[in-house]
């Protein structure tokens, strides 16, 4: 054996990239958030919005609306089986679905308008995710207590009490989720009938599947995932950056009066150092349902629910300081005030610069003015929104409730009869779009000497006939038009079918073609 | 690349890769995402066990649920047949005119007959039943053998001049080229053409009428309006099976062509023949 001299061994400068010490787990567990109950004006507003939106959602299907004996009496009904949409006094047929498209456009433009003026108000107050999470938090607080009690319970060992609390919380969540899914399907069929069928077990399986899916999503999104839906799944937080500008109101921590924050304001003050209004009590952090710190500035996760604003105002009240350390402010006002507080950006925030000698706020500070809402951008959104709305209203007021559509038989295009006359066949569709039966008159205009006959009816051949049409239905007729040989002028003559309701003076026309062989000219 | 790099802004370690100074943060995935990923993997594996998936030597694995798209089609077809059952039973029991009088049955028979027509009849009568030279147009009101639903049913069931069916409709116009002179043929052609239109030489009409009275009235009738019992066409109307005009008529008189229609009862069965009869009757010319 040959022994190597150890000094001759080469030493590699290598370090494991993936060493056990530095290796990170493949996933990060969600850090639970335990929002504390807030109180104040915005909290009260959120309760109100929650009551109104949930009230509409759960109760609307039960509202009745009398449309007579030939249409359902549910105020809001999406009748998929019969392809009709009922919204109070409006009935929409599938080919009028553009009304829904128009409403979606208005919703989109309205969202731009709201966001450019008051920020993510949709996210903070009315988004279903926000509303249902709020509702689920009400349940959680009622059962497990407020923030501290919940944190203690969560950190504690599994005991019988913890088990009972957790089971009852999830049970109530599931009940709410099932009611949410249950209310959804009530929009798709007669609510009183359907709810009975659901409980009897006789409803269609698609009803149960829909309830199950919506129960699962409501429970998962509202109870388990909560803020992760907003942060990871929803595209709106990404879009908002383009929607907000420097004049949009958004929940803002006003560093210019809050910094430097200190828990020992008096000591620091006595030492002659500057001290801001923020006492670093973390009340704003404790109430946040998104688990963020608003003092970090505008951030993607913030849904601007303004609960931190309420929490901070409460603290400021107790301290005897002006409210509004966290406030709805525009970026331009905030920047202007920061410029004051930092003496034009020349140094760190010095709160004494924003105050006068008697410690009231300096007159140089910018404040939000209602004028800022009216700027070209919001006028444009408002104009576009109004234009779409007016177009929809105009279209709704002038739309036809009686229509005729005609399909010309193409094979054969024409038939020569024994007496030499030419016959063409047409499928005539009469749309009676009101929920009442009526008698309408179908007339031919043009086509000299020709007469119509309706297949399967006893009506004599004539240039007009009256026919009873079913309420709220498409009535299909097979009509033969026959022109004597001597009257045929061209191989393709045009004429009109005209329908009239002589009671309401509604009418519609369709220009059709009558074909004849070349030889018959 | 050997040492760990911490991004100075976020304080998060990077993957160690660098492109022109741009580094990739090594952020961990959220737990829900990883769990969802594993669930989808498990789902995919379970799916291939439950449903036909893995290719083997001769076929694929069958799947423990025993699903097969071929069976699914079979079940759907059986359900469709069952749904039709009520109508088919009624059609079997009723006569064609009873079927035609019943709105729901007529609608069903017209739809079913239309489908049968598209497969069996369009080759001669055309996809719009408009016919062609030698093959009658079924949309018009001129019927060689009668246009009531019963008569149409009889024609479809047993055919025309179809030798192997004893009940077939049978008639034959003799070749008059062997019986009368060419002059007489020209005269009768002019006479017949004059019944529904103009002829070139009006002087031929009168002797033609005489020839007609002597040779043709037995089948075509005194007034030339034909005889549906014999399938003898009406010669006074605007509809001609072969061609209009005195020359074409003379050709037909000299050496008549006779169309043949097969009997369909053996191939289609009574129900489908009834449906076809109601369909043809509904085309607009039925009597």
From TrEMBL, chain A:
GO terms for molecular function: 4 iron, 4 sulfur cluster binding; metal ion binding. It holds the Pfam family FixG_C. The gene is ccoG. SUPFAM superfamilies: 4Fe-4S ferredoxins. This is Cytochrome c oxidase accessory protein CcoG. PROSITE patterns: 4FE4S_FER_1, 4FE4S_FER_2. The chain crosses the membrane at residues 45-63, 97-114, 171-189, 201-221, 379-397. Residues 268-297 form the 4Fe-4S ferredoxin-type domain. InterPro entries: 4Fe4S_Fe-S-bd, 4Fe4S_Fe_S_CS, Cyt_c_oxidase_cbb3_FixG, Electron_Trans/Redox, FixG_C, Helical_ferredxn, Ig-like_fold. GO terms for cellular component: plasma membrane. The keyword 4Fe-4S applies. Keywords: 4Fe-4S, Electron transport, Iron, Iron-sulfur, Membrane, Metal-binding, Transmembrane, Transmembrane helix, Transport.
From TrEMBL, chain B:
Residues 108-196, 203-284 form the Cytochrome c domain. GO terms for molecular function: electron transfer activity; heme binding; iron ion binding; oxidoreductase activity. Its cofactor is heme c. Heme c 1 binds at residues 121, 124-125, 261. GO terms for cellular component: plasma membrane. The keyword Oxidoreductase applies. Heme c 2 binds at residues 173, 216, 219-220. Binds 2 heme C groups per subunit. It is found in: Cell inner membrane. Its main location: membrane. Pathway: Energy metabolism; oxidative phosphorylation. Keywords: Cell inner membrane, Cell membrane, Electron transport, Heme, Hydrogen ion transport, Ion transport, Iron, Membrane, Metal-binding, Oxidoreductase, Repeat, Respiratory chain, Transmembrane, Transmembrane helix, Transport. The keyword Transmembrane helix applies. The chain crosses the membrane at residues 32-54. One of its GO terms (biological process) is proton transmembrane transport. Component of the cbb3-type cytochrome c oxidase at least composed of FixN, FixO, FixQ and FixP. C-type cytochrome. Part of the cbb3-type cytochrome c oxidase complex. FixP subunit is required for transferring electrons from donor cytochrome c via its heme groups to FixO subunit. From there, electrons are shuttled to the catalytic binuclear center of FixN subunit where oxygen reduction takes place. The complex also functions as a proton pump. Belongs to the CcoP / FixP family. This is Cbb3-type cytochrome c oxidase subunit. The lineage of its organism: Bacteria, Pseudomonadati, Pseudomonadota, Alphaproteobacteria, Hyphomicrobiales.
């Amino acid at each position: 054996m040959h022994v190597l001299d150890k000094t001759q061994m080469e030493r590699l400068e290598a370090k494991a990239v993936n060493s056990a010490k530095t290796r990170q787990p493949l996933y990060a567990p969600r850090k639970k958030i335990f929002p504390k109950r807030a109180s104040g004006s915005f909290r009260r507003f959120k309760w109100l919005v929650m009551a109104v939106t949930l009230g509409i959602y759960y109760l609307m299907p039960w509202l009745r609306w009398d449309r007579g004996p030939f249409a359902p009496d549910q105020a809001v009904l999406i009748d998929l089986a019969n392809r009709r949409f009922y919204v109070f006094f409006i009935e929409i047929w599938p080919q009028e679905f553009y009304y829904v498209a128009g409403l979606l456009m208005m919703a989109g433009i309205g969202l731009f308008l709201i966001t450019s003026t008051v920020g993510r108000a949709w996210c903070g107050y009315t988004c279903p995710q926000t509303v249902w999470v709020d509702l689920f938090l009400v349940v959680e607080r009622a059962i497990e207590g407020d923030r501290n009690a919940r944190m203690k319970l969560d950190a504690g060992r599994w005991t019988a009490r913890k088990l009972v609390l957790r089971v009852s919380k999830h049970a109530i969540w599931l009940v709410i989720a099932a009611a949410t899914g249950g209310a959804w399907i009530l929009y798709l069929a007669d609510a009183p009938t359907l709810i009975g069928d659901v409980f009897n077990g006789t409803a269609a399986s698609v009803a149960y599947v829909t309830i199950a899916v919506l129960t699962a999503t409501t429970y998962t999104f509202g109870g388990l995932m909560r803020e992760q839906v907003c942060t990871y799944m929803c595209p709106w937080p990404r879009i908002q950056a383009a929607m907000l500008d420097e004049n949009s109101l958004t929940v803002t921590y006003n560093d210019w009066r809050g910094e430097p924050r200190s828990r020992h304001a008096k000591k620091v003050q006595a030492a002659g150092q500057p001290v801001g209004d923020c006492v670093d009590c973390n009340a704003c952090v404790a109430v946040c349902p998104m688990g963020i710190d608003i003092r970090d500035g505008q951030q993607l996760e913030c849904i601007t629910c303004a609960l931190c604003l309420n929490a901070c105002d409460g603290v400021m009240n107790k301290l005897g300081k002006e409210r509004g350390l966290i406030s709805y402010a525009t970026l331009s006002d905030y920047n202007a005030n920061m410029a004051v507080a930092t003496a034009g950006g020349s140094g760190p925030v010095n709160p004494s610069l924003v105050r006068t000698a008697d410690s009231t706020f300096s007159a140089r500070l910018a404040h939000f003015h209602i004028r800022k809402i009216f700027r070209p951008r919001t006028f444009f959104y408002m104009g576009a929104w109004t234009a779409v709305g007016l177009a929809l209203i105009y279209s709704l007021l002038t739309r036809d409730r009686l229509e005729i559509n005609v399909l010309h038989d193409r094979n054969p295009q024409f038939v020569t009869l024994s007496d030499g006359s030419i016959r063409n066949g047409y499928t005539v569709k009469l749309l009676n779009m009101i929920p009442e039966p009526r008698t309408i008159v179908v007339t031919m205009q043009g086509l000299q000497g020709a007469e119509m006959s309706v297949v399967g009816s006893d009506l004599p051949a004539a240039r007009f006939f009256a026919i009873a049409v079913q309420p709220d239905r498409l009535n299909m007729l097979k009509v033969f038009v026959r022109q004597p040989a001597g009257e045929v002028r061209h191989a393709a003559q045009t004429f009109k079918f005209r329908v009239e309701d002589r009671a309401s003076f509604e009418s519609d026309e369709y220009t059709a073609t009558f074909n004849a062989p070349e030889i018959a000219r | 690349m050997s040492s760990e790099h911490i991004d100075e802004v976020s304080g998060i370690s990077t993957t160690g890769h660098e492109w022109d100074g741009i580094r990739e943060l090594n952020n961990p995935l959220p737990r829900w995402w990883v769990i969802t990923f594993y669930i989808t993997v498990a789902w995919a594996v379970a799916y291939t066990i439950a449903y036909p998936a893995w290719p083997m030597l001769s076929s694929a694995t069958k799947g423990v649920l025993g699903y097969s798209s071929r069976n699914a089609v079979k079940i759907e077809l059986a359900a469709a047949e069952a749904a039709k059952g009520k109508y088919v039973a009624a059609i079997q029991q009723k006569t064609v005119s009873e079927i035609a009088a019943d709105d729901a049955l007529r609608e069903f028979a017209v739809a079913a007959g239309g489908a049968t027509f598209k497969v069996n009849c369009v080759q001669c009568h055309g996809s719009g039943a408009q016919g062609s030279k030698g093959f009658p147009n079924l949309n018009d009101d001129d019927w060689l053998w009668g246009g009531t639903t019963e008569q149409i049913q009889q024609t479809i069931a047993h055919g025309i001049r179809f030798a192997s069916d004893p009940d077939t409709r049978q008639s034959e116009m003799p070749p008059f080229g062997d019986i009368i002179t060419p002059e007489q043929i020209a005269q009768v052609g002019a006479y017949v053409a004059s019944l529904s239109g103009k002829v070139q030489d009006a002087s031929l009409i009168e002797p033609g009428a005489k020839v007609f009275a002597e040779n043709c009235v037995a089948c075509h009738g005194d007034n030339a309006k034909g005889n549906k019992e014999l399938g003898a066409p009406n010669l006074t109307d605007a509809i001609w099976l072969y061609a209009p005009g005195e020359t074409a008529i003379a050709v037909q008189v000299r050496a008549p062509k006779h169309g043949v229609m097969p009997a369909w009862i053996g191939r289609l069965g009574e129900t489908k023949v009834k449906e076809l009869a109601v369909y043809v009757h509904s085309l607009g010319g039925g009597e």
